[in-house]
Design brief:
The structure is a single chain. The protein is mainly α. Helices cover about 75% and strands about 0% of the residues. The protein has six helices and no strands. The longest helix is centred in the middle third of the chain and has 38 residues.
Length: about 210
């Protein structure tokens, strides 16, 4: 398994992601995309400081701090995504010669599947939180870098849509239909919210670019 971490170079990350190795996979890429969204939002906030922006100082400070926290969460989720895949592969290799072994293997696989669902769902929440902060400063942040804020919003949504596919493919392996429906309802609600916030943010961004 890959031991790739947040400290590796972009070149190394892309090399590993494009290889035949199973990790880093889609979940890791989604986490990285969300972190890039946070970086663009943070940059816009950092360039919206000084006397001209004194009236939004507290709001800007909050956004910068929040983006730092979200980036840390993205790093943690990337590592968790790799660990959950390893957990699934370990469960897949468990013996199934006896009925007891089969039951234990099935239980272990379902536990691993739930972990593989929970992690990208947490990333959906990260993306929603990041977009909410971007939206809050869309009207008032530095107009000279407003396009970067829009890029951040697009990256957050792209990360969320990518994470959703990871959720979906793991939901297909979940045997408990009630739990499955609960996850489906929750992800659908978050994705709708994310899409709405992104569109609202981009409307403001495009309006400020045009004017």
């Amino acid at each position: 398994m890959s031991e790739l971490s947040w400290n590796d170079s972009i070149r190394q990350f892309l090399k590993e992601a494009g290889s035949a190795a199973p990790t880093p996979g889609g979940g890791s890429i989604s986490a990285l995309a969300a972190a890039l969204g946070a970086a663009m939002t943070s940059m816009t906030a950092n360039l919206s400081q000084g006397e001209k922006f004194a009236h939004i100082h507290e709001q800007i400070t909050e956004v910068i701090r929040s983006m730092e926290n979200l980036t840390t969460r993205c790093e943690e989720l990337m590592a968790a995504d790799i660990r959950s895949f390893e957990q699934y592969m370990t469960a897949l290799k468990l013996p199934k010669g006896t009925d007891e072994e089969k039951r234990y293997r099935t239980h272990s696989l379902q536990t691993a599947v739930i972990a593989a669902i929970e992690i990208p769902m947490r990333l959906l929440e990260v993306c929603r939180d990041g977009l909410s902060h971007a939206y809050r400063i869309a009207e008032t942040s530095n107009k000279n870098v407003i396009s970067d804020l829009g890029i951040g919003a697009i990256l957050f949504e792209a990360a969320a849509q990518s994470a959703l596919l990871t959720v979906d493919i793991n939901l297909a392996s979940l045997k408990d239909l009630d739990v499955k429906q609960s996850y489906e309802a929750k992800t659908a609600a978050i994705i709708r919210e994310i899409a709405q916030i992104k569109e609202q943010t981009l409307l403001i961004v495009r309006s400020r670019i045009a004017n």
